[in-house]
């Protein structure tokens, strides 16, 4: 939700600016620009985060999720969807494979919204929200542990591995997202009523 609110408007302006400057540019062309930019940023950011010592897993997770969210939202804008629409959050969670389907992602977001809302017992709601959002990422802990082990044997290997792995993950994400949006689907299991006005023109 934070990514959609923070990145969405900038992604929308990015797409509008490119379309104004290059009226003949098609969605696939804009998508290629976004993909190149964020694959590069994923590699650089992942490599830098891997050098954060004991905090490397947390730092890399933050960099990866924020960069991948930005990639999805810019691709959404490229294919005529409003990247600032709240429903994009569901698509981000599904396309980045944090959640396996739209229903699971929607439940996680609902729990997160409830944790911010009024009422008694905010801590139980906050714990539920955190669990729903973060539990699917637990499987990555083994990969981070392996990177730390390799780094002890081969200094610098963790940085190189993180950079290459995060860039490759961003490329796979871009392919999934482009396939979904190009087909007129949404990648996140949402209805097609969430297209931005630009896609209807």
Uncertain spans: 188-201
Give the radius of gyration: 18 Å
Number of strands: 0
Mean pLDDT, nearest integer? Answer: 74
* Secondary-structure element string: HHHHHHHHH
Count of helical stretches:
9
Major sheet characteristics: none
Cα-to-Cα separation, first versus last residue: 27 Å
- Structural category is mainly alpha
Write the layout of secondary structure elements.
Blueprint: H1 2-21, H2 27-50, H3 56-78, H4 88-95, H5 102-116, H6 122-134, H7 141-153, H8 157-182, H9 197-200
Question: In words, what does this structure look like?
Answer:
With 201 residues, the protein is mostly helical. 73% of the residues lie in helices and 0% in strands. α2 (27-50) runs antiparallel to α3 (56-78), α3 packs across α4 (88-95) and α3 (56-78) runs parallel beside α8. The radius of gyration is 18 Å and the shape is globular.
Descriptive terms for the model:
201 residues, globular, disordered C terminus, mainly alpha
Quick recap of the structure?
The chain has helices at 2-21, 27-50, 56-78, 88-95, 102-116, 122-134, 141-153, 157-182, 197-200. With 201 residues, it is mostly helical.
């Amino acid at each position: 939700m934070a990514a959609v609110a923070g990145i969405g408007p900038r992604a929308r302006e990015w797409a509008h600016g490119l379309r104004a400057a290059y009226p003949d540019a098609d969605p696939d062309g804009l998508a290629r620009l976004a993909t190149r930019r964020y694959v590069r940023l994923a590699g650089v950011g992942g490599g830098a985060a891997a050098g954060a010592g004991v905090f490397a897993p947390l730092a890399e997770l933050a960099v990866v999720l924020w960069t991948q969210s930005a990639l999805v939202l810019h691709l959404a804008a490229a294919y005529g969807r409003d990247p600032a629409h709240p429903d994009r959050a569901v698509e981000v969670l599904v396309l980045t494979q944090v959640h396996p389907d739209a229903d699971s992602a929607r439940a996680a977001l609902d729990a997160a919204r409830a944790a911010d809302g009024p009422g008694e017992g905010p801590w139980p709601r906050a714990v539920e929200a955190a669990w729903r959002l973060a539990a699917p990422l637990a499987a990555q802990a083994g990969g981070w542990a392996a990177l730390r082990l390799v780094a002890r044997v081969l200094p610098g290997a963790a940085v190189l591995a993180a950079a290459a792995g995060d860039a490759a993950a961003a490329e796979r994400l871009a392919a999934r997202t482009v396939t979904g949006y190009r087909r007129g689907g949404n990648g996140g299991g949402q209805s097609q009523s969430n297209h931005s006005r630009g896609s209807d023109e």
